Every structure is written in structure tokens, then in C-alpha cells.
């Protein structure tokens, strides 16, 4: 089965408090994005990457590719105003039947094992959404106030969200809605159910400065 990874790195990283988008910030002397690309390329030798970047940073992305990777396996496209549009721009470069991973570029600590789990389940069921159980207590906000909720019934969603192209490509032809926070919500709005797969505690999203410190500690282990 053909394999594509759409790496969504279209954000500007305002919460990081820097002018440079977080995907380009150095983590142990290499850009955060480097680690994400490396893991996907090493997971399958026949996997192709579609890297979605802010249009003003596509040259910087190309420099990373030229410095570290086989440029024949990576294509760059410009992101959109929303995650939905950025993913749709990436999907426009998929022209054959495939399993498609959609991954946050700043989730740079995922493992090859997680990628393999997602692929195997997507081949079997058509979808694979990595998730972990919440360790924190949960409270549900209601019109009357708030109430405790069983955290064992709450799953924290990660990426790579993985789909057969026969599901994901037509799903992204529907009209955009504000409730689309990830690819799973788009596929559900299209009328399909999604299946969960075990995620990873280390698969954190680099969002704030402290996340860089945590990531560096994990890499050093």
C-alpha cells in the first residue's frame, strides 16, 4: 500500500513567544521539524512526505530538507488560514490510493512503533486515531455549573491521525465548519466512524517554552 505523511507545520507559534515558528526552533542543535521528518522517513522506506508550511517559511523548510534528507521523498506545499485548509492543500498532492498519515509537525517525539500501529489499524479498519487516557481528574462544564466526570471515559487525542485515502480524500470535500479541530472530526462529519489506537505519553506537542525543556530531557534519556 502506498504511504503518505502530511506533516502540518503551518502555524506561526505565537504561544512560544518568539518570532520564529516553533517548528524551526532548535532542539539539541537541530530544528524541531527535523526530528519529525526523520522518524517518518525511517519508519517506511517507501513513505512520501508532504510538508505543509507557512508560505513565508517554505524556503526555510527547503533548507532543512536539503541539509538532512532525500529531497526526492519530500514535497512542500503552502498552508492555509485553517488547519482544515492546510490539510486539504496537502491532500491535493495525493494522486493514488494510499494510507495517509496526518501529523502535527511539532509532535517531534513520536516513535516508529506508533507509526506502524497506526498504519496496521488503518489498513484493517480504514482509520486509526492515537489516544491516551487522561491522568488528571475531569470536570464537565454544564449550564448549571460543573460536575465530576469519569476520566477513564475520556481520551486525549494525538497524531498521526491515519486514514485510507478512500475515506480521507472525499471527507475533505465537505464544507469547513468551526468544530473541525482535527481530521477525525472531519471524517465523522462526513458520516464515518473512527477507531482509536494506543498513543504515547512522549508524543507531546511543542507549544510553550517548557515543552522544549521536556523534549530535550526525553531525547537525552
What does this structure look like?
The chain is of the alpha/beta class and 221 residues long. The protein has one domain (2-129, 157-220): Alpha-Beta Complex (Spore Coat Polysaccharide Biosynthesis Protein SpsA, Chain A), CATH 3.90.550.10. Helix content is 33%, strand content 26%. Strands 1, 4, 5, 6, 7, 10, 11 and 12 form an 8-stranded mixed β-sheet that branches. A two-stranded antiparallel ribbon has the order 2-3. 38% of the residues are buried.
Task: Set out the fold topology.
Layout: E1 2-8, E2 26-27, E3 30-31, H1 32-43, E4 47-53, H2 58-68, E5 74-78, H3 83-91, E6 98-104, H4 112-125, E7 127-133, E8 138-142, E9 145-149, E10 155-157, E11 161-164, H5 165-171, H6 183-189, E12 196-198, H7 209-220
Parallel strand pairs: 1-4, 1-6, 4-5, 7-12
Antiparallel strand pairs: 2-3, 6-11, 7-10, 7-11, 8-9
Helix pairs in contact: 1-4
What is the correct CATH architecture? Alpha-Beta Complex
Largest sheet: 8 strands, mixed
Order of helices and strands: EEEHEHEHEHEEEEEHHEH
Helix content range of the residues, please? Answer: 25-40%
How many strands appear in the DSSP assignment?
12
CATH superfamily: Spore Coat Polysaccharide Biosynthesis Protein SpsA, Chain A
Strand content: 25-35%
Q: How many whole angstroms does the radius of gyration measure?
A: 17 Å
The low-confidence runs, each spanning 5 or more residues with pLDDT under 50, are none
Q: What oligomeric state is this? A: single chain
Number of helices: 7
What is the CATH third-level topology name?
Spore Coat Polysaccharide Biosynthesis Protein SpsA, Chain A
- Could you report the average pLDDT, rounded to the nearest whole number? 95
Shape: globular
Distance between the termini: 34 Å
